Amino acid sequence: MTTKVWGTDDLGRSVELVTLQHNLFEATVSDLGAVLVSLKVPDKGNRQRDVVLGYDTAAQYFNNYETYFGATVGRNANRIENSQVTIDGKTYLLEANEGQNCLHSGPNGYHTRRWEVKEKSASAVTFALFSPRLDQGFPGNLELTVTYKLTDEGLEITYTGLSDADTVFNPTNHSYFNLNGQGSGTITHHRLQLNASSFTPIADEKSIPTGEIRSVKGTPMDFIQPKEIGEAINDPWEQLQLAKGYDHNFAIDGVRGHLNPVARVEGDESGIVMTVLSTLPGVQFYTANFIQDEKGKDGAIYHSREGFCLETQYFPNAMNTSAFESPLLEKDVLTTLKTAYLFKGESHGNV
Ligand code: BGC
User: Fold this and answer.
1) For site-directed labelling of 60, which of 14, 87, 93, 174 has its Cα 20 to 30 A away?
2) What is the pLDDT of residues 215-237, one digit of tens each?
3) Which of 262, 63, 235 is nearest to 172 (CA)?
4) Residue 42 Cα to ligand 1 middle (Å)
5) pTM of the shown model
6) Distance in angstroms (rounded) separating the CA atoms of residues 92 and 201
7) How far is the C-alpha of 147 from the C-alpha of 21, rounded, in Å?
8) Catalytic site residue 174?
């Protein structure tokens, strides 16, 4: 593990880069936003490739309100309709940042916070954040931690939350992956398998789910058998047209509370295979539809569909949708959520 000063953010705070290592894996994270800055994994020739999109500077991550590259998103990932939630009979107003709606908890996201480094070792680091009562509009003083840990198989991200009043706890990691290496072009030829027999259709371009949980059968959303991400992405099908590609929540098949398989993705050129597992019930599969000429790391310029996100989460707008499992964190109950991004190339066995 190495730690170095990265620079200062817009508030003049000094921020660090922490690099974790284990076997041929290397992850760099920062106390600014508990963000994942790079993730290097071996390809089929045992050459390390950085498989996440990102930026070079702390200032870019601090101002990252559009792409959320690598960000730890909280308290609530994804959208809340009309920027309001009702908890224990009381309505709390959040800050709208996408029309009337609240995306990724509004303009004061956790990616702008300086987290405390609570514990660190060669292969793991735990960041802690205190999010006071009415932070972003939510009730409850919330203590949360995010742990990044490299293992023999890849990267595990564990979140804990503890609040002194009932609140919302729905964090995610917003990394964009390109398994051929960041900055290497389109991801449309990656093969994806999604362990989801249903998804939550969106009502319109604002991307709030209708509340229906619909079967993927016979639709472009069917990734039960692996297929190329790009196979049906341009189909003239309403759901894809509304979002300009994939930008939908899928309901993960599995047993609630278990670390269930979510997805398996293969980089077509690198031979890198990523398997995602999570204890969360949903995953937002997003094909970077809205990215245009975005200046990234090491001189890369990213375009639409040059990365994909698998944001594990409670379903979007679940606090206002009775058919969706609630992301309510009960007062004084310590909750642990976990997502793992595991890598097995041809050179290192099968999952
Ligand atoms: C959303 C996208 C949004 C992206 C970046 C994703 O979680 O679903 O619509 O463009 O985050 O904010």
Assistant:
1) 93
2) 999 999 999 999 999 999 999 99
3) 262
4) 28
5) 0.97
6) 26
7) 14
8) yes
